[in-house]
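## tool: complex_structure
## caller: assistant
## args:
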Amino acid sequence: MFKYSVPLVIFIVLAIFLALGLTLNPREIPSPLIDKPAPTFSLPRLQNPEQSLSPSDLKGQVWLLNVWASWCVSCRAEHPVLNRLAQQKLAVIIGLNYKDESDSAKNWLSHWGNPYDASVVDAEGRAGIDWGVYGVPETFVMDKQGRVRYKHTGPITDDDSVEIFIPLIQKLQQE
Amino acid sequence: MRPIKKQRLLLIALMLAGIGGAAAFALKSFNENLMYFFSTTDVVSGKAPGDALIRIGGMVVNGSVERPGDSLLVRFKLTDFNRDVPVEYTGILPDLFREGQGIIAKGRLNGQGTFIAEEVLAKHDENYMPPEVAATLKPDTQNNAQ
Amino acid sequence: MIAELGHFSLILALCLAFILGVVPVIGSLRAIPGWIMLARPAAFGQVFFVALAYGCLTYTFISHDFSVAYVAQNSNTELPLLYRISGVWAAHEGSLLLWALILSCWTGLVARFSQTIPEPVIARVLGVMGLISIGFLLFLLLTSNPFERLIPAPAEGRDLNPLLQDPGLAIHPPMLYMGYVGFSVAFAFAIAALLEGRLDSAWARWSRPWTNIAWMFLTLGIALGSWWAYYELGWGGWWFWDPVENASFMPWLIGTALIHSLAATEKRGAFKTWTVLLAIFAFSLSLLGTFLVRSGVLTSVHAFATDPARGLFILVFLAIVIGGSLFLYALRAPHVRSTATFELISRESALLINNVLLVVTAATILLGTLYPLVIDALGLGKLSVGPPYFNALFIPLMAPLAVIVGLGMLLRWKKDDLSAIAARIRWLALISVAVGCLLPLLMPFYSWAAALGLTLALWTLAITGLAFFDRLGRKQPVWTRLLKLPGAFYGMTVAHLGIAVFIVGITLTSVYSVERDVRMTPGDKLDMAGYIFEFHGVSQTRGPNYDASQGHVTVSYQDRPVAELRPQKRIYRVRKMPMTEAAIEAGLFRDLFVAIGEPLGDSGAWSLRIYYKAFIRWIWLGAIFMALGGLLAAFDRRYQTLSNKQALTDV
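## result:
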């Protein structure tokens, strides 16, 4: 009688390990940049390509760099959260428009609202390499000295916004 | 029925012997072919065995890739943002090998602490980082995020 | 609109799957004819709606509808039509839809070609398939909807992953899925038999042709995958023991055991519970393969974007399907009485040894694939199991199998006389060994591994031939006798010849191939196995959606030009992704393989990868033979004419 249950038992053990394996999945991809100066770039602005922007222009301010693209589905989920965050005017929000077509990007912003104080165009993804961008969206928080203090991988949810971003920004503003 | 039972017993015995042999053999070659994975910090602090085939992972340090001479030898440094390990590889690098990319190298350490790679793997997906590499980098961020 | 139509028809398909999974099964258990009769229409309806949904997604790809997120992420206006069609299954959502489509097609085919099977049985079988379909359709709709909109639509799509822009890979997933999902038929027949509590040989006869077809597709799918990895990944290997490859190979091994075990169950009523278990395993491993590929729990060169939430869904689904069926097995199997007896020297024994070897091989591969995961889960560190482990096990386990293959065909069912057999085959055995040991003398150098491989191949060939002429008999003219042989016998013969071809391929490739990574400046020559490779430099060229550096290499043999090879290094414009395209001059006895690496210095020098691959085509040729064997066996006349009568006598 027992021998016919052996496959079932083996499977149950296997399933437990598979379940444990799932929880091990690295959801958060860490950044090497934490507490290091923000990598520099000088990229054209999306709305005004003659003007360029670089991180040194933002020294002395707390600012966010949000990596986004119009082809990115998760960015769309994140967008209302960013819009709400932008309304509170806690910090400068810069968009890094990553490997995108500028026309679709502008279109996208006019349709969904523009939370960014400025967006810069990284069509080839070169700045993305310096910043260690692995997926879109990603968000970096910089302090007044221009150091990277936090990196968020994946879309920001409302909870993230309230529990992580707002307290962190407030803390950095006081530093 | 007797001879049939006897034969069946023989069949089962043969089978068990076969499976037992296979299992013993499997476990032996299993132990010989396990490749442990180490971060670059582990390697520098001497946790990695000196002679065994291992895998190490990390990011390719910016500006560290060089090709000395006319051969296919490449030197670069791998890092987990704590310690760096110099790596040497002779051959053709994968398409997605580039500075700032997370990669895995398979090979052995030589006496001077240089990792001699037999194989270098980079993944064909820009959203992808080898999970092992991500894990070695992970504790670092958690500390910093607090 | 089209995308919404697709989404809507998926929902309708799910409703039909619910009806199919519930009503006919209850109907058959309670003997309500009206409910039983619902099975076929529900199955056909499901095919219609899933196919409609699939058609809608294909249409959005062809018409460049980038307002559909999935299309925007996997297509581009510059993408050629072929890849817009195959792009449908290039990523997670679409390949799941393809899976669901294939599952419903198999369900529809079973519904259509099962007129001879009693209605309550077929109602249960279709019901089980409906239950599986519910799982996949729910998975699609809840976690991976391919019809999700992206508004406003981007002007341009992100393009298909360059790795997948290749004709070989375009047809690889459908083939593989046909195989994976095809095992659901045998699984459904087995579960239906368990539900009924009646494990006779009838279910084995009914599921045999389906299993053969599924096995054929899986064989072709794996071979295509191996061929693709050979020329597209640019490494020149044909098998890497990568977790994703293992995930497809395990169901193949169990499926191979299953088609042999089904034969014994059908013909002799032997191994009844064992065969049921194999049917459950074959499909379970197919599901496990999906889990491993789609959840990202294992590291693999086949990097698909992964998502733990989806992994959790598949895991729960796995737990229900596999756990449930093994539970049912544990309940019902103890009540099955085995009446079949056989002696040590019999075809049953040979099949049993075949089964044990195949299952043990699959188990060792499973161990090697999952062990890193287990160690990680226990927090004992990170490790991986290297290819040498798999090679070290695969060869000693498969070599005895090759010896047994021919013997099984010669042995009679139930009881045979070993000394009589030995007397007949000893000369063949001697000749195989002698010729096998002499043949490597013709090669550049002598190798005992090659001698062993060739001996095994010759032995398989000789015994298969002997069994064939035995069966042919001598009484009538040859062509009448040839016509009279059943398709199943032809199938078996061809598949076993395929094994011989395959053994020659893997042995000679691994022994006699030469591989070099070299630095070459234009005008440099390299001598490899008598072939002179001359490098003429690299120029720039442009494809429909990529720019490329193209190398130019000419090959000559004994001063005669053999080939002009133009390997490329492509940069796909949208994803900025580099890709190596090897150039291959294929031949029956050798392939010449050239790939370019990167420029070295300013002198026009490049790194080049140059391979001479001996007999590598035989590997895939062997697989084609095996697949052809599966096809021939599936279309045996016996399944079409006799099954009804025999089903009745069995009742």
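## assistant note: The interface with chain C takes residues 4, 7-8, 10-11, 15, 18-19, 22, 25-26, 29-30, 32-37, 53, 55, 67, 70-72, 90-93, 95-96, 121, 123-128, 130-132, 135 of chain B (CB under 8 Å). Chain B has two domains: 1-34, 37-138. Handing back to user.
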